[in-house]
User: Which sequence fits this backbone?
């Protein structure tokens, strides 16, 4: 966009939203130059803070008139560059739309504005006997609108499913500025556009309200911590448990590398020489838990678990989960920069892919530590490097690519829950053929034919935006 | 209008490429194509409105891949649901979505029709299990969507788009599903509902966090009377409430004990409880409905099997509106039959008509206002033979989704050859 166009658009946006809700100063824009994926950065031209669906629609109509890209953004915790303002444009912040509009326990749903943080809904539901099931590690910050955009998961998706399994209605603004409401009654006798919008990374519509399904809290828990000498033993135990038809609420894995960081941060008391630990949680009525627990302990013992301990009380359980959820953040103690990857393989391939990640780490001389939603076959290798050293950055990128190649070779996918964003766009044409991508393109045509919404993301056929990218984007130290 | 679909030509390719060839040729010649699974769902909804090809998927029925330890399965779309379940059962697994007439219904057809049953409350519907698919669009182009892993955020989720699209956007040729371990324990608990206020109290309790039933069924009307568990025991009762629990033995028995105690205290009578093998025939009855001809037998014409004329309706409301809507529907005549998946807000109703010609006036004067008052949605699942209902009358308005749906139809099937008239696209 030319400076003149930006000025004009800014004037109109200020008239619509008030001056305080439109940022254009470069020192203020710097905050919005990237999300949790920090390898590429670019400043937007403007940042706007609507407070209502009507204002969102007004912003989109104005941007359409000025042909300014609209990049919807929640808390900016996404890890694949989903809200990177590739070619500039207007970042549409949903963080001031954070009202919980209705909690309806009889009908088991909550209606929230898109900017409501995941944790805020959790707190509002405290004591109700219900919760919103998706629990990404970023849940203290991330918004429910962002969860919808990326189809976010978390540890407990193993039993309870991802965001898409818990959204029963949406209000959204399309690329032409029109507002649609879908749901919340089930089976409305039309196409499942809710299912299509979940996970579309802000490229089809800007979601403004979400009807989420509420899940009853479990009456009781058994949270186990199994310590293994090797990663191989741990992954084999996980694989056997699933194959035996036991689906716990969560089955998480942390390897020795990440345990060291976690131990330093939280002093949980993990043995320093443990090769890996698995956190396995069972939930449900007390009456059913003991038997499942016995079977799980047997599988852990079969694979040489040195110790299988049950969290003694709610406090210990909370601490175990804190260790797991804050593990990635603790990596900051190990390295000045890191990149968390997101790959997924058929569950039985988990032992193989973690072995390969070890080999790839050695080959590229990049230190890699691992957390994994092991029960789902979803690995999160964390690549450690120093972004001030261009060679290290290159090696980390190469290692990341090779890991994802391995996931594809195993019959898996390059993202289970973080999304494609910009980071993985080059992989789309390897996962999908031209006809598959063309079919996806039909959705773009139907929702946002002018390509106004988050161009250049998720979907590689957007040739124009991709071409602009090399010149407009500053790549960190590459 | 063609009353008997068999007057159209039948093609039966045994390879996905054959499906693509049929559709390429049909698009060129602008011949209508009516995809055909087992013919067990929806044949009664709206018969083909023009001549064309019946494209049977029956010969695309192979198992493609079943890595049982991953709890996923990939099959061709023409495999029957019963065969899929047999393969799974041999490995101690199952697909917990109930498809009526499973020995005829194909998995592709079930996905196209988004079939489901009572267990949808606890187990979800096909959208919660479908991981990937292959399909052919209206131009004869094959495309794939999703993958074979249980979590996948790569690209748009075209699986969701094709579920419930009634063969109007593409012909599904192959599917990958996530499956579940086989059941350990299955229990049905049933009690009479003495009046509707009490009914709502019982449903409220079940909606609370302490129970995790897989099915909550509210049943009323004469069609259930031949089933000793599902029939109301007292003439004075307005309905029967049947709750299903399925999980590990200890978990199930714990909840059953709690619920029977609570119901005993509330109603003064011990509820009926049946377990496992004894419960199986009643589950089967719930899956196939007390509403004959809601799903018509494969080659039968709709609503002409000697019955008096009737309307079969699906009314979808919020769960808290089920009791009010169901009681109003029951007031519309003596022989009204209700089966509500009450936890989901889904009500199937069969309304007898004095004369077939009354169908429109009953809908417009009684049913539609009742559904509108509950902010619900109405789909007419079956209407008397001899009447011609428009797609709009069958499906209702798509509301806000209409414009996007029309463009999608145009994109996936520009020549309009796929199942014309079967589903609501308001520009067609």
Assistant:
């Amino acid at each position: 966009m030319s400076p003149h166009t930006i000025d004009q658009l800014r004037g109109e946006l200020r008239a619509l939203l008030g001056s305080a809700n439109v940022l254009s100063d470069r020192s203020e824009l710097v905050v919005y130059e990237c999300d949790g994926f920090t390898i590429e950065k670019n400043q937007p031209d403007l940042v706007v803070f609507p407070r209502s669906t009507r204002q969102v629609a007004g912003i989109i109509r104005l941007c359409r008139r000025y042909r300014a890209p609209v990049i919807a953004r929640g808390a900016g915790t996404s890890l694949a560059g989903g809200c990177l303002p590739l070619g500039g444009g207007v970042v549409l912040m949903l963080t001031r739309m954070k009202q919980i509009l209705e909690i309806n326990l009889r009908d088991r749903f909550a209606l929230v504005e898109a900017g409501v943080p995941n944790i805020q809904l959790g707190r509002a539901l405290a004591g109700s006997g219900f919760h919103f099931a998706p629990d990404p590690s970023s849940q203290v910050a991330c918004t429910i609108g962002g969860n919808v955009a990326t189809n976010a998961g978390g540890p407990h998706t193993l039993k309870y499913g991802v965001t898409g399994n818990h959204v029963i209605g949406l209000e959204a603004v399309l690329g032409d500025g029109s507002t649609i409401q879908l749901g919340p009654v089930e089976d409305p006798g039309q196409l499942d556009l809710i299912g299509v919008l979940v996970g579309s990374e802000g490229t089809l519509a800007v979601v403004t309200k979400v009807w989420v399904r509420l899940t009853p809290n479990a009456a009781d828990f058994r949270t186990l911590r199994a310590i293994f000498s090797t990663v191989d033993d741990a992954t084999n135990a996980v694989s056997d448990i699933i194959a035996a038809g036991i689906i716990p609420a969560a089955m998480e894995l942390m390897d020795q590398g990440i345990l060291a960081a976690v131990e330093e941060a939280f002093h949980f008391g993990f043995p320093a020489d443990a090769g890996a630990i698995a956190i396995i949680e069972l939930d449900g009525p007390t009456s059913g838990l003991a038997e499942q627990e016995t079977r799980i302990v047997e599988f852990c013992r079969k694979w040489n678990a040195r110790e299988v301990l049950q969290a003694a009380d709610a406090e210990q359980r909370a601490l175990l989960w804190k260790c797991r959820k804050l593990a990635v953040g603790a990596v900051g103690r190990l390295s000045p920069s890191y990149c968390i990857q997101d790959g997924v393989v058929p569950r039985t391939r988990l032992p193989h892919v973690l072995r390969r990640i070890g080999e790839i780490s050695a080959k590229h001389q990049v230190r890699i530590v691992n957390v994994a939603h092991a029960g789902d076959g979803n690995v999160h290798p964390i690549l450690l490097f120093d972004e001030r050293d261009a060679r290290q950055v290159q090696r980390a990128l190469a290692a990341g690519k090779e890991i994802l190649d391995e996931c594809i070779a195993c019959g898996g996918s390059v993202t289970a829950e973080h999304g494609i964003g910009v980071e993985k766009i080059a992989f789309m044409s390897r996962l999908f053929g031209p006809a598959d991508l063309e079919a996806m393109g039909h959705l773009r045509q139907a929702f946002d034919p002018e390509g106004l919404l988050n161009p250049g993301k998720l979907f590689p056929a957007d040739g124009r935006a991709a071409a602009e990218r090399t010149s407009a984007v500053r790549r960190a130290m590459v | 209008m063609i009353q008997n679909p068999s007057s159209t030509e039948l093609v039966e390719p045994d390879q996905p490429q054959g499906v693509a060839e049929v559709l390429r040729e049909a698009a060129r010649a602008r011949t209508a194509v009516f995809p055909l699974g087992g013919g067990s769902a929806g044949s009664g909804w709206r018969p083909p409105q023009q001549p064309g090809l019946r494209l049977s998927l029956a010969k695309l029925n192979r198992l493609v891949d079943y890595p049982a330890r991953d709890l996923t399965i990939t099959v061709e779309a023409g495999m029957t649901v019963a065969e899929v379940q047999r393969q799974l059962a041999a490995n101690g697994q199952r697909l917990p979505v109930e498809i009526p007439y499973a020995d005829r219904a194909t998995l592709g057809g079930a996905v196209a029709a988004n079939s489901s049953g009572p267990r949808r409350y606890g187990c979800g519907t096909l959208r919660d299990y479908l991981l990937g698919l292959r399909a052919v669009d209206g131009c004869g182009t094959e495309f794939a969507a999703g993958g074979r892993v249980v979590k996948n955020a790569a690209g748009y989720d075209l699986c969701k788009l094709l579920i419930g699209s009634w063969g109007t956007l593409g012909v599904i040729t192959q599917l990958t599903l996530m499956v579940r371990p086989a059941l350990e324990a299955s229990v049905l608990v049933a009690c009479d509902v003495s009046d509707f206020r009490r009914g709502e109290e019982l449903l409220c309790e079940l909606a609370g966090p302490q129970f995790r039933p897989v099915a909550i069924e509210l049943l009323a009307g004469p069609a259930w009377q031949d089933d000793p568990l599902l029939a109301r025991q007292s003439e004075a009762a307005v309905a029967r409430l049947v709750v299903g629990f399925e999980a590990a033995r200890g978990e199930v028995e714990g909840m059953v004990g709690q619920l029977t105690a609570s119901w005993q205290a509330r109603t003064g009578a011990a509820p009926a409880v049946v377990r496992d093998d004894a419960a199986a025939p009643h589950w089967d009855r719930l899956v196939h409905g007390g509403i004959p001809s809601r799903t018509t037998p494969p080659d039968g014409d709709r609503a002409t099997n000697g019955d008096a004329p009737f309307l079969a309706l699906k009314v979808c409301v919020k769960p808290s509106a089920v009791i009010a809507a169901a009681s109003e529907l029951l007031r519309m005549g003596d022989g009204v039959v209700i089966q509500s998946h009450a936890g989901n807000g889904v009500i199937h109703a069969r309304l007898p008509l004095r004369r077939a010609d009354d169908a429109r006036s009953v809908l417009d004067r009684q049913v539609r206002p009742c559904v509108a008052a509950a902010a619900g949605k109405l789909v007419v699942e079956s209407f008397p033979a001899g009447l011609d209902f428009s797609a709009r009358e069958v499906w209702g308005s798509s509301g806000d989704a209409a414009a996007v749906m029309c463009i999608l139809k145009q994109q996936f099937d520009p020549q309009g050859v796929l199942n014309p008239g079967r589903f609501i696209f308001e520009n067609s």
Q: What stands out?
A: Chain A touches chain B through 97 residues (CB under 8 Å). The domain at 100-216 of chain A is CATH 3.30.465.10 (Uridine Diphospho-n-acetylenolpyruvylglucosamine Reductase; domain 3). The first helix of chain A runs from residue 3 to 17. Chain A has 17 helices and 21 strands.
